Amino acid sequence: MNKALTLYNKNSLEFINEEFKIEILTNDCLFTEGPVWNKEGYYLFSDTTANVIYKILPQGDKEVFLQDAGTGNPEDPDLKPGQAGSNGLAYDNSGKLLICQHGGHAIARYDGHQISPFITSFENKPFNSPNDLVFHNDQRLYFSDPPYGLKDGKLNPSKFQSFAGVYCWNNGNIQLVCDKYQYPNGVCLTHDQKHLFICSNKPFEKFISIYDTSNNLFEKILAEENSDGIECDRNGNIYLCNKDGLIILDKDGQRSAIVELPAIPSNLCWGGGYMKDLLITAREYVLLIKGFLK
Questions:
Q1: How far apart are CA 253 and CA 240, in angstroms?
Q2: How many helices (H) and strands (E) does the chain have?
Q3: What domains does the chain contain, in order, with CATH numbers?
Q4: Do the Cβ atoms of 209 and 225 come closer than 8 Å?
Q5: What is the pLDDT of residue 138?
Q6: 264: number of Cβ within 10 Å
Q7: How far is CA 116 from CA 64, 122, 166, 244, 251, in A?
Q8: In 8-61, where do the E strands start and end?
Q9: Do residues 241 and 268 make contact, with C-beta atoms less than 8 angstroms apart?
Q10: Model confidence pTM above 0.90
């Protein structure tokens, strides 16, 4: 048995490669977040505190991809110290990079040459500090907007939103999907795109919500769990980032396994040629588990 793996359900070994190894790609960042796989064969991730997006080269080294990616002033009194940078990242169907900007209080788009504002406000007010985002196949964009990046991590309704929400952008129109959380965090879609998962990392809101993407309505609570980032696999399993490590839930929300990591994870994404590798951001670390899925 792999020492890093704790099983709650032995059926987990039907999809997990038990002999996986956790590779440390880097451990000298400040606070890593928002990993994303580029189909050209590399990963990007945010160092939110450093205000930099890094590229992971095929051999595992990192290089600066974008400076000042969050377009925030580190001295801005409206921001929490160290929170001027970018967070979640995602690609649209044209290959442009979408960036959750704490400092810019917006979703920005990078076309390979410059960063431009993309989604900047809701009901004529800037967002708080967009955190995570995910594209539906039909190019609807779901994203969370907690106040983590604001001063003291608290809402500032005189300048920004008066609540923390999860939104759906659809061809220029923005719909508020969820306002049940004070600190909505990770968002992900099921493999069939029919359901959206939303979670929080705060102990006082320990529940994962499921929304029906056909109408963006609340469906049910999946599990009483906290998570920062969240991801799904093709078999319906759910992967959570919390203080215990990488938590794997089955499709019914029951714990099936835990992977122990060298630091508390913040987010994760699938990558590699067959999308079976798992890249995990964890405080100063970026970790790679090649061939995690069978």
A1: 11
A2: 0, 27
A3: 5-289 (2.120.10.30)
A4: no
A5: 95
A6: 15
A7: 19, 17, 22, 37, 38
A8: 22-26, 32-38, 42-47, 52-56
A9: yes
A10: yes
